[in-house]
Design a protein that fits this description.
globular; two-stranded antiparallel sheet; 0% helix; mainly beta
Length: 64
Amino acid sequence: MQFKARGSETWIPVKTVGFTSTGRISTQVTVKREVAQDGWYRLHFAGTPTSSASASTPDFVDVQ
């Protein structure tokens, strides 16, 4: 999982997430200071020798 703050161009790694054999995920994120602000979260797959890297469509989170 990655985070990008509003106005930034840099994605910050937040957490490594595991997948089930059917491709599902379920995780909770503890918000740390560097990501306790408005911004986007996305899942990012780094790729393997046989699979291309990929990223999900980001979701915006408005911190209150």
